[in-house]
Amino acid sequence: MMRPVRSMLPGQISLEVAPIRSERPANLRDPNLKTGGGGISNNRVTCFVSQLSFSRGDRLLVHAKPSSEWWWAELQGVIGYVPAGYLSQDAAGEEEEDPSIEDPWQDEEYFGNYGTLRLHLEMLSDKSRTEAYRQVILSNSASLSSKRVMDLGCGTGIISLFCAQLARPSMVYAVEASSMAEYTRQLVKQNGCDEVVTVLQGRAEEIELPEQVDVLVSEWMGNCLLFEFMVESVLLARDRWLRDGGTMWPSSAALTLVPCQADSYYAEKMAFWERPYGLDFTPLQPLAQQEFFTKPKFSHIIDPCDCLAAPCDVISLDMYTLQVGDLEQMKGQFHFCVEKSAVFHGFTAWFTVCFKSLEAGGATVELNTGPNSGPTHWKQTLFMLDRPVSVCAGDSISGTIVLQRNPVWRRHMTVTLHWTIKGSTDNPDNAQANIFIYYMHFI
Ligand SMILES: C[S@@+](CC[C@H](N)C(=O)[O-])C[C@H]1O[C@@H](n2cnc3c(N)ncnc32)[C@H](O)[C@@H]1O
C-alpha cells in the first residue's frame, strides 16, 4: 500500500499540497481548513496533514479506518494519517464521534450550489461539452427509438431535452437532487417534452423508477476527472437501474498527463519576488513556493507548445466494469520522452470521455478537455514542481500517479505524483535521477 506520509529520504523532495477551490462545484467546503459555522465545527480551525505527528500517551480521535495499516485520526485540531499499529484502544474503550464530520458528502453545500444558476450557466455556455452530448443523442437517434433512458443529474434537463427532441425514446427519467429540479419540470413542459420526460427530484441513490432503463447517460466529470466523485452515484444507479446489456454514456474515460513548462505562471508567482521595485524580496520565495506551488492550479490553460513530451493516459475507466470500490485508490504509470530542451515546471492533467455508438458502424463521440481540442469550462489542471528543472531532448521522465480518495470527505482526493528524470546518454550532465514526491489535495 502507498505510504500516505511525507518522507524526507536522501534524494527525495516531498511536498504536501494544500487545497484550493475549483470552479465546479463552487464553494464546496475546504476539508483541509474548517472554520466554525454551518454546524461544521465550533469556531475551531482544523488542519489536515498527510501524516499526523503524535507522541506516546497522546489520545487521538480516530475518524476512519481506510485500511488495516493506516487510520485517519485527529489530535488537537490536526487531522491526518497515523499508522494503526502504533495505537491502542482507549482504556475506557469509548469511540468518540467527531460532531464536525456530519456530512462527509457535503451534500447540503454541493446540491445547494447546483440549485443556483451560476454553475448551470457555466456548463451550458461550454459549447464543446454540451454539443458533445447533443452529438451523441443525434448520431444515435435511430437506436434510441422506443428506448428507456435515465439522465442522472439532469440539472436544467438539457440532455433529456436533446433526447426528447432529437430522438424518440419511450421515456426519459430525468433525475436531479438539487432544487433546480423544480425549474427543470417547468422547462420540460415549456418545451413540449412532458409526455416523454419525467423529472424526479431526489438523490439517484434513493429514487425509485418504475422499470429498468436501456441507457444511462450522465455528465458526472469533475476537475481531474474524478473530483466531486459523482461517478459513484452513476455506478450505483448502473447496478440498480440499467438492464443487462444496457448502454452507459460516457462508456469510458481517461485521465491524461504531460510534463510541461509554465513560464508565465512561474514568473508571476515566484520570479516576481526576485527584485520588485529594485528590492531583494527573495526571503519570501519559500513562502511563495508553499502558498502557490503546493496546490494544483485548476483552470490552467496550457498552450500545446508548453507540452514537453507526447501526453500519456495514466488512468483509464471502463464505465461498464468499474466498481465503486475501485475509486478508493487508482494508480497509473507514465513514461515520457522529452522532445525539446526546456525548463520543466510541472505536470498538466486533463481528461477525455468516449460515448460508444449504438448504430452499426457508428462513430464513437469523444469529449476531450485537452489543449488540442476546443476549450471547456474544466480547462486543465497544473501541478507545479517546487523548483523548475532543466531538461533536454531525449531525457526521460517516468513515474507513477496515485489518486487516493479521502476517507472522510468523500468528494475529495489526494493526488500523489512520484517520478524520476533520467538524462539521455547524449546529455551526461543531466544523467542524475531526481525523485520528487507530491501530495495534492483536491477540493
Ligand atoms: C455536472 S452537472 C450536469 C447537469 C446537466 N446534466 C448538464 O449537462 O448540464 C451534475 C448535476 O447532477 C446533480 N447530481 C449530482 N449527484 C447527484 C445524485 N447523486 N443524484 C441526483 N442528482 C445528482 C447535480 O445537482 C447537478 O445538477
UniProtKB/TrEMBL annotation:
<keyword id="KW-0963">Cytoplasm</keyword>
<dbReference type="Pfam" id="PF13649">
    <property type="entry name" value="Methyltransf_25"/>
</dbReference>
<keyword id="KW-0539">Nucleus</keyword>
<keyword id="KW-0728">SH3 domain</keyword>
<keyword id="KW-0808">Transferase</keyword>
<dbReference type="InterPro" id="IPR055135">
    <property type="entry name" value="PRMT_dom"/>
</dbReference>
<keyword id="KW-0949">S-adenosyl-L-methionine</keyword>
<dbReference type="GO" id="GO:0140374">
    <property type="term" value="P:antiviral innate immune response"/>
</dbReference>
<dbReference type="Pfam" id="PF22528">
    <property type="entry name" value="PRMT_C"/>
</dbReference>
<protein>
    <recommendedName>
        <fullName>Protein arginine N-methyltransferase 2</fullName>
        <ecNumber>2.1.1.319</ecNumber>
    </recommendedName>
</protein>
<keyword id="KW-0489">Methyltransferase</keyword>
<dbReference type="GO" id="GO:0035242">
    <property type="term" value="F:protein-arginine omega-N asymmetric methyltransferase activity"/>
</dbReference>
<feature type="domain" description="SH3">
    <location>
        <begin position="16"/>
        <end position="91"/>
    </location>
</feature>
<dbReference type="Pfam" id="PF00018">
    <property type="entry name" value="SH3_1"/>
</dbReference>
<dbReference type="InterPro" id="IPR036028">
    <property type="entry name" value="SH3-like_dom_sf"/>
</dbReference>
<dbReference type="GO" id="GO:0032259">
    <property type="term" value="P:methylation"/>
</dbReference>
<dbReference type="GO" id="GO:0042802">
    <property type="term" value="F:identical protein binding"/>
</dbReference>
<dbReference type="GO" id="GO:0005634">
    <property type="term" value="C:nucleus"/>
</dbReference>
<dbReference type="InterPro" id="IPR001452">
    <property type="entry name" value="SH3_domain"/>
</dbReference>
<dbReference type="InterPro" id="IPR025799">
    <property type="entry name" value="Arg_MeTrfase"/>
</dbReference>
<dbReference type="InterPro" id="IPR041698">
    <property type="entry name" value="Methyltransf_25"/>
</dbReference>
<dbReference type="GO" id="GO:0042054">
    <property type="term" value="F:histone methyltransferase activity"/>
</dbReference>
<dbReference type="InterPro" id="IPR029063">
    <property type="entry name" value="SAM-dependent_MTases_sf"/>
</dbReference>
<dbReference type="GO" id="GO:0005737">
    <property type="term" value="C:cytoplasm"/>
</dbReference>
